[in-house]
Amino acid sequence: MGITGKPECDRVSELKSFDNTKAGVKGLVDAGLTKIPPLFHHPPHKSDEPSNLGNTQHIIPVIDLADIDQDPIIRQEIVEKLRDASETWGFFQLLNHGIPASVLEEIKHGVCRFHEEDMEIKREMYTRDYTKPFLYNSNFDLYTSPALNWRDTFMCHLAPNTPNPQDLPEACRDILVEYGEHIMKLGILLFELLSEALGLNPNHLKDMGCADGLLALGHYYPACPEPDLTMGASKQSDNDFLTVLLQDHNGGLQALYQDKWIHIPPVPGALVLITNDKFKSVEHRVLANIDGPKISVASLFNSGLESFSKPYGPINELLSEHNPPKYRTTTFAEYIHYHNTKCLDGNSALLHFRI
């Protein structure tokens, strides 16, 4: 049985019917529905109630990268702030990160243009073949998730190989490549700072291959007629080394901090998951909204397709007799397979790899 109480065969039939439209959640909205389908209903849970910390944006760590390459003292201060934010929160806000405001605005417009493109054009790119350089669908875990999320997504591999422009939709072709170049530069800097925050050589995480691959996700959250019944994105922790997130002005992102959900303002954020629990891989979610659409762009750094079979485990330099490994060694391929198979069920995939 699914959470709707229907026989599983009926639920699978409904999922296939939704998938076969190749229109995603936006297709439902365009059809003029006023009640969301039961497939999207999320059961209420006490732990998901809003927190009284919801509007305390001032307590969220802010890291200003201005003059980081001009003054070693400033760089060290930034490293210390990043270490504290990563150990305590698992995310932080970035200011003066070097990406022009015009580029940030254009990538949001590009994502919106694609998702609001003529449906027949989008249908040509709708697929669940994740080996393609660019693909679009709704709910990557459509057939395994206990409840669907109110969003559509496109995925684009920007590194290690720059995509062929002909593989990208015209609506966001140029800005995807340009944005990817800026994000890669920022990501390499962040990995240097994270390495220093761990007491390692600045190139340590980069040399491990953490910045070899870059995947861009363009999320589109249509206006939802019944936002209290569903989620834009279920509780999850990311499945990569580092995520830089750009939100539009609508917000909606929340992070779990001290067992309470708090709102995160629309600025880039970061998540790290290979430091033997020294840095947090924060659990987060996105609320559905009656206003919309909401746009976000997530840039995920990973080992790259060519290195998916490379083993990864707790960093040896961080281990000792008093700090033994907490996770077993695995490959990115095994981790991604498990993450995608288990679906967004609210539990971190990391728990599966605990020793």
UniProtKB/TrEMBL annotation:
Pfam families: 2OG-FeII_Oxy, DIOX_N. One of its GO terms (molecular function) is metal ion binding. The keyword Lipoprotein does not apply. Keywords: Iron, Metal-binding, Oxidoreductase. Residues 210-303 form the Fe2OG dioxygenase domain. PANTHER family: OXIDOREDUCTASE, 2OG-FE II OXYGENASE FAMILY PROTEIN, OXYGENASE FAMILY OXIDOREDUCTASE, PUTATIVE-RELATED. This is 1-aminocyclopropane-1-carboxylate oxidase-like protein 1-like. It comes from Senna tora.
